[in-house]
Amino acid sequence: MGFSSLFIHRPVATGLLAAGLLLLGAVAYRSLPVASVPSVDLPTLYVRADLPGASPETMAATVATPLERQIGVIAGLSELTSVNTVGGSTIVAQFDLTRDVDSAARDVQAAITTAGGLLPSSLPAPPFYVKANPSAFPILTLALTSDTLPGSRVYDYASTVLAQALMEIDGVAQVEIGGAEKTAIRVQADPGALASRGLGLENVRQALANATVNLPKGSLDAGDRNFLVAADDQVFEPAAYRDLAIAYRDGAPVRLGDVAAVQAGTVNNKLASWWNGRPAIIVQVRKQPGADMVATVDRIRAALPRLAAWLPPSIALHITGDRTRVVRAGIGDLYVTLGLTLTLVILVIALFLRRLWAVVIPGATIAVSVAGTVAIMAATGCGLNNLTLMAITVSIGFLVDDAIVVIENITRLVDQGVPPLTAAIRGTRQMTFTVVSITAALLAALIPVVFMDGELGLFFHEFGITLCAAILVSAVVSLSLTPAMCARLLTPSPKPSGTGTGSEAASRRYGAGLERALRHPRLMLLGVGLSVAATLALFAALPKGLLPSQDTGVIRGVTEAPPDISFTAMRDRQQAVDALVRADPAVESVTSSIGVGLWNALNTGTLSITLKPPGERPGERDIATDAVAARLRQALARVPDLAVYLSAVDDFGVGGRMGRARYQYTLRGPKLDDLMAVASQVRDRMRTLPELTDVSTDQEANGLQANLAIDRASAARLGVSTQAIDQTLYDAFGQRQVATLFTEFDQFKVVLEADPTFQKDRQSLTRLYVPSNAGPQVPLSAVTRLDSGYAPLLLNHEGQLPAITLGFNTRDGIAIGQAITVIDDAVRSLRLPPGVTAGYAGTAKAANRSNANQGWLLLGAVVAVYLVLGILYESVAHPLTILSTLPSAGLGAVLALWITRTEVSVIAMIGLILLIGIVMKNAIMMVDAALMAERVLGLAPRAAIVRAATLRFRPIVMTTLTAALGALPLALGLGTGAELRQPLGIAVVGGLLLSQVVTLYTTPVVYLAVTRLRGRKAALPVLQPAA
Fold it and tell me: Where are the transmembrane segments (predicted)?
């Protein structure tokens, strides 16, 4: 008993198995994580170290380099970058897929510990790591505002109440707070008042360090009782600090209040954030790798009312950005698209077969196949997202193809008078090899997609798994449930065999046309050759891209002012930008920040712009995010002395560094000065390229610097050490954290600096005094010479070498592949000096690799299909007949892409690969039937292929139409997020429409040509009778 007969003879068991699979699919569906696209999170960690007051050069040399040397030897490390700003270093370590992020974290912690002995002793806290990619866009952004409380108090509540609770929520990896810093006691000393008393800033620092401590004090036993020993050794109020005696002169105390102002402030008073123009504390939440984005946001939203109740009534909590809003809309629209696809496919079946049960059976096949696919998705760790639902949607068209092939053959036999049970057994047996061949060809075509490597491999892995699962389940269901239902439900049609005059007339006209085509084989073969040439030429001419631009409704911006700008001036310019952005009618909310942070230098700021949903944007209701960004660029160009770089946020982002634009080009070299000169040349050359916009560099070497040249002979004569000079400068201008206050919930710092009025003029440096070994204070001007210079505000490393990254966007209508070509040509013309290397980073790197591999991807699919078909047919020749369907399909696809001005993105390439599997169904059905006619009926090759083509005409047309209509809703670009799916639909529909017409005539011609070439000596495979 064959495989299908086992199910045909046991209808109850078959029905229960189908019901069980439906139930399993429903249960599995509820467990699937929901996201916009599959996660492409490589194991990534970043290490953060802070040293207030340190220059970027100091941070790079003394902090980043020792850490990089230890982290750089960890196994499995794929990319190591660092960003060094004033007072901070951020080192990003990205690992390959062979490393588990928790295991990598242990290695990173060990590296931090090993490097500890080489780090500056003045670090206020040890470096720490976070298991997250700092360049990833947050899934939820909150803003805390208050009309009465200062920003530092709001920050404290955000840090101690909100952030801690959010971190406990399942799926949350990091909670980043911006806009202010922790509360601190700020001591602003007057160097002149100190000098008049024979004191210096070092005296103040030592006094503050000794005045507030928190050390263990032990316990004592008094008889039969034990007492813990405690003391009020911490000073919390500014007023108490003012009474501290820092020295005695002439027997009288010199109190801190006599020489310094003491007030409550923040650790860093050069940070600011706004939400819709109001001062705010911004809280950004990032998810853990692989976590369900929608479920994580739902858990956060459910917790927010409880967390808001913990805050004072004077603090308002706002949700300013929710990445799942677009995800939810896109997934919902995909379900509508899926329903439309299913309706179109069922209508095609009804049109051709014109009987109720012949329509119900494929519908049941689709339902069970989808349920089985969902179950496999859950078992393999896939989720619900744009790509997996796109896979299910497009697969509907060819999920039903196997069932159509079987049902059509059984229906034909039933209409010829064969009893339904016998027709089901015989018809399924005749088509089993065809179904297996079709399934094997489709799976072979998808091998390159499933095993694609790198970030794109991660991105499309779930898509490939879902498609393969759908194809396999469909084949099994079509050979089990479908014939079992046909055996019990199909009845002879009251009309003659076929669908009446329409189907038979079309078949007769096709037969006549086929005879004419067979009389001109050379002309037909020439047409096949020309279609190959045209396909290759047009494919080469089409622009190449990575992924289509998505309308996520979020724009990320970076503002950049001249390097010597003050914090106050930067704040004014940032607020001007904020106001102009909020004036755009498409903008819903804006968060804006300035101040030194993970990526920011003193002269840069950030913007996060959330747009209204597409249907609510005034004017052009369908205006896309990219178009809004272009409009904002024009408006923001009016802000003086400020460059603004905007880029739409998409769901595919790779790399560990956030640039000023979507794409990045990185230069590396051992000598920073040479690297800066080369980067300046490359930047200027890129700005002349008409294909690019927003060309920028993350390296600015024009920050003003006050240089002190130490007269070492004078310093030695006066007893002044270099360390004393550095300590005094750090005390005055480094916002030095000199003491720590411990509370029940947090720790706070005591910060020492020179009086703000003393920091407004670089000549103030000459009025500082430094201690000498002999005791008296010595004017700094006596041992140093002051001059001016320039210094970088930010230093980057990549692979432990100095690196400069150039950011760029492409202009409207320019694909990233075109941009890469012109950039490569421009850089080659500059002839980089020895030692300087250049390459793309992040998304541009992935695009460059993708463009280089596109041809190999298609070739791999074709070769895989040929090998599988050769094995199945035990022939090296007949697979060529089947593969002859590809040129016309490829030509139709690239023509459709060209007509619709769609670039050849990876999505379009997936469509082309799918076409390879889909269009071969026509040839497989013809070749199988022809080979059986030759072997069983003894027909000549010409008669056999003519009989096979006319016999399989109806199922060929049906399967092609169902596949095309299955992809049609994708091609039309319906719903939110359709930009990502549309190229695949366009390629599939265009390829199927042309191949449907052409291959019906070219396949028989190629079959006869191949038969003549191979002769008649080759053994034919053992097949079941065709009729």
Answer: 334-353, 360-381, 387-410, 431-451, 463-487, 855-873, 906-932, 953-972, 984-1010
